[in-house]
Write a structure and sequence with these properties.
about 20% strand; alpha/beta; globular; four-stranded mixed β-sheet; about 280 residues
């Protein structure tokens, strides 16, 4: 059986998407909806750890309130897929594989150039995996469609599916992820250090809203990098994260609006210029 866990901060949105989808499911499930309309919970990790401790399902599905399942056997389909994966630590509906590269400098310069010209969808089409559908028209979203579970480096937080035994030993890190960002990325990387894999499942769903990068994201990002500094690169649905200081300088240069009072200086300008020239 599956335990559905969701933080609700907009009742109308939840009724329109998640609750409407759950009400039409054929499979039995446990529903653990966390009322956060008053803002009592300050982070997803805090709320999910609380609700997860009360779950009695074999699999815990942590899902956003604005996700809609397109058919009545969706929960059964999810359970059928994940039950075949003996080494799963966490699964999701959208994720990013880790790019293979020969030269870190070239990888990041190409990536940031794509962002600079507003063509991140190209990066996602190369390294993104998942069968998310667009809300209007039901057309496939960005990323490569899959027909079977696929290992990835990280999954998007719109849905995290965790076996109960894995959750008993691994909780969400509410110190590093003390807001509403990157907790799924952190969980993916954490379980990978315990020889468990992260998967994207080939099930379709509609996600009403997209991600948002703000100052809280950057604060969490810095702590995430420190925790997982042994990773050379972290590929997420919000972007590619370098862990080396030189590349982080490059990142701050391209996203100065996210870092209050960031000081631009000569060496950053040179680094950025060299990075862009490297791509040609």
């Amino acid at each position: 059986m599956i335990s559905i866990i969701s933080v609700i901060n907009n009742e109308q949105c939840a009724k329109e998407y998640l609750l409407r989808a759950l009400n039409r499911q054929n499979a039995k499930y446990q529903s653990l909806l966390i009322d956060n309309t008053s803002g009592d919970y300050k982070s997803a990790a805090q709320a999910y750890n609380y609700a997860g401790s009360k779950a009695n399902g074999d699999y815990l599905v942590f899902v956003h309130q604005d996700v809609f399942f397109p058919h009545r056997d969706w929960l059964k389909e999810i359970e059928d897929y994940i039950s075949t994966l003996s080494d799963v630590g966490v699964a999701g509906l959208a994720g990013m594989v880790k790019p293979r590269f020969l030269n870190e400098f070239e990888l990041f310069s190409r990536y940031f150039l794509l962002n600079k010209i507003g063509n991140y969808r190209l990066w996602f089409s190369l390294y993104g995996r998942g069968n998310l559908l667009q809300e209007t028209g039901g057309q496939p979203g960005p990323g490569r469609m899959i027909s079977e579970p696929v290992p990835v480096q990280t999954v998007d937080e719109l849905m995290l599916i965790v076996p109960s035994k894995v959750f008993e030993a691994n909780k969400f890190d509410d110190k590093v992820c003390d807001n509403w960002h990157l907790y799924g990325v952190d969980f993916s990387l954490t379980v990978s250090k315990k020889d468990l894999k992260t998967y994207v499942l080939p099930s379709s769903a509609i996600h009403h809203s997209g991600g948002k990068i703000d100052s809280f994201y950057v604060q969490t990002l810095k702590k995430l990098i420190k925790k997982h500094e042994t990773e050379k690169i972290i590929n997420t649905t919000c972007g590619l994260i370098p862990t080396k200081k030189e590349f982080m300088d490059f990142f701050w240069e391209h996203y100065p609006s996210l870092v209050p009072n960031i000081a631009k200086n000569g060496h950053k300008f040179v680094f950025t210029s060299l990075g862009l020239l490297w791509t040609f």
